[in-house]
Amino acid sequence: MGTAPAQTIEPLPQQLSDALEPPADAPGLGRRMVVVGAGPAGTVTAMLLAKRGYTVEVFERRGWPSRALAATLHSYILALTPRGLEPIVETGADPECCSASRAPRSVGMFDMNSGRSLRMPPGRKHIVDRVTLASDLIDEALRLHGNRITFHFDRQLQGIDLERQIATFADPGNSSLQLEASYDLLIGTDGASSTVRDILQDKVPGFRVRTLFQASMCYKTFHGLPVDDYPAPSATNDESSSAHAQSAVPSEVALIGTHNCREFTYNWRSPKSDVMVSMWKAEDGRMHGLLAAHDDLAEAEQERRLAAATPKLPAEWRRQIAAQTGSQGQLPSSFGKIVRCSQFHGPRVVVIGDASHSVTSTLGQGCVTALESCSALAATFAACGDDLDRVPAAFTRARAPDAHAVQDLELMQVHAMVPGLSAWRLPAILYARTVKALALLASLVFYKIGLLPSSVYLYSAFFAGVLPVRAIKRNLHLLAAAGAGLLTLFVWYLLLS
Ligand SMILES: Cc1cc2nc3c(=O)[nH]c(=O)nc-3n(C[C@H](O)[C@H](O)[C@H](O)COP(=O)(O)OP(=O)(O)OC[C@H]3O[C@@H](n4cnc5c(N)ncnc54)[C@H](O)[C@@H]3O)c2cc1C
């Protein structure tokens, strides 16, 4: 409990450690940052600020997120694409799970119902799980900046005195254990249900928050499904039982057995998309993943539902998933909230990551966008000459257009993909599907006549981060307009001929 426990972190070679030591006139020297939340955005922000010489205190309401805990009930998978990896590179850190030289690369995903693989656009990608990512980043933060960054675990934000610049934290298990931390700037990276955001909404005129979409599904995680050791059917008197067992390994399990760990994610959806199972193969050769559904069923019902909704999911896996995700065990976690803030700051306070621009997991952009925000914050410090009175508002001006554009694209994808028709969603669904179809039409035509390098150019540019997201959004609408023009010409031609 409390500050980070002692642990074995390899010391830095002297040369690298000297290179990381900020110069004597570093702008942040002698100034104290408080970061709320030790998720990916919190730790990457802490590292980028430590590089500028700031002393950073990170407060996290949960315990130390060790790698060992990743194989427990709380972690889930996420895909890091080049847009999200670049800010990590900028910190100088080399976290094991997404190291350019050591971590396995990811290729894409498999739709296990159709057996089709969807390869993601070129560029470095890693499938990581949330707890391992957080843990590896913290290890790197301590290795590189152990003298400037301090982590306090089991410390939950209770309140902020904006005038006196003091934040109060408590031990979630014992709220009488309170701790005050003064700050020169407070950075809220406390996730989609942010307390910092709630406090700003309460106390700062003009700070408005709107929930644009709330998914009705919840998820639970499961771990350790067998692949190479998939159990043979119960023993028979058959002499050739071992050959029989070999051939009885379901083809899905056999296929995954041929892949490297973290190479693909594997998705099983029910036809109505009301149950979804997503998993990946970890270094231990076993499958870990999550089950998303609208309701929480007991083990036996869960297994029956999986058998009916995802019949291609191998029987042994269905059994183990049901045992781990039945309602008697872990509590379901909600996900899939698009929350929009009118601004990302208050007086000497900044909110970044899911705290200021959460999305659903439909486009898989939440973490990537959160990490981009860390990089944008560091750039804002540089642009403002580390004037902490100017940084907060300048950050909103610099970051909101792109972060809101990600949310707009996400919302479009949600309405195009997520089932559930209602009167309020109908216009949004029609709009999203029309824009996507027209843009696809124009992309195909422009690719054929050599005006675009690929028919999925925008999609690739989005993942690779070669264009700002607001430009992607604008170009999508330009392509849709061009598609509408091409369609009109075609209809006109048909009518005239
Ligand atoms: C099922 C699922 C799949 C996803 N897939 C992808 C994907 O493929 N690609 C992608 O880019 N993103 C994905 N995401 C989104 C991604 O996980 C988040 O966007 C990302 O974790 C956001 O990082 P963050 O640091 O801003 O917030 P978080 O990761 O939520 O971290 C916030 C931290 O703050 C702590 N905290 C909260 N309140 C307090 C408090 N009061 N006091 C102190 N600490 C507090 C929390 O314990 C937590 O550690 C997925 C999300 C889910 C749920």
UniProtKB/TrEMBL annotation:
Residues 34-383 form the FAD-binding domain. Pfam families: FAD_binding_3 (PF01494). Keywords: Membrane, Monooxygenase, Oxidoreductase, Transmembrane, Transmembrane helix. The chain crosses the membrane at residues 437-464, 476-495. SUPFAM superfamilies: FAD/NAD(P)-binding domain (SSF51905). The keyword Oxidoreductase applies. It comes from the Eukaryota. Residues 1-24 are annotated as: Disordered. This is FAD-binding domain-containing protein.
